[in-house]
Amino acid sequence: MAHLSGTDLSQLLLLPEAVDDYVELDNPVRFIEAFVNGLDLKAAGFVRVDAKDTGWPGFDPADLLKLYTYGYLNRVRSSRRLETECHRNIEVIWLLRHLKPDFRTIAAFRRINRSTFRSVFREYNHEHCHE
After folding, report:
1. Contacts for 14 with CB less than 8 Å, ≥ 6 apart
2. What residue segments make up the domains of the chain, in order of their start?
3. Which ranges carry the Transposase InsH N-terminal domain (predicted)?
4. For 65-86, how does the pLDDT look when each residue is reduced to its tens digit (9 = 90+)?
5. Burial class (CB in 10 A: 0-12, 13-18, 19+), 112
């Protein structure tokens, strides 16, 4: 069974042509997207990278890492605040492809993968500074 997946970023909506139209090409969330998509999460030490064969599909750890990285850059540390951003912030809506994890899911991801964040953020800072 696969992970939950968000909607297509180019899907048309009622008001804008597409959510992608609201996120500029030089917006930092596009770098976050490219950076996380380029990581080997299993090699980095993240758990639950492979989807389970049974049960309800969970969120892809890459999507939760994108959200946590966004929060790190924008000084949004609280899981409840990150959940709120998923509902109202167009950058986060774009980044997560309309996925809306609840605060418990965000907090559990942080707790389970806490030891791997330091190395990922160190690599992010290295990539971002040398871009």
Report:
1. none
2. 19-129
3. 19-111
4. 999 999 999 999 999 999 999 9
5. middle
The answer to whether the CB of 100 falls within 8 A of the CB of 86 is yes
3-state secondary structure of 38: coil
DSSP category for residue 33: H
Q: Residue 7 corresponds to which amino acid? A: T
pTM above 0.70, yes or no: yes
CA distance 23 to 54: 36
Cα–Cα distance for residue pair 18/74, rounded to 1 Å:
24
- Residue 93 identity: I
64 burial (CB, 10 Å; 0-12 / 13-18 / 19+) is: buried
Residue written as tokens 């049960």? Answer: 55
DSSP code of residue 131? -
Contact indicator for 46, 65 with CB cutoff of 8 Å: yes
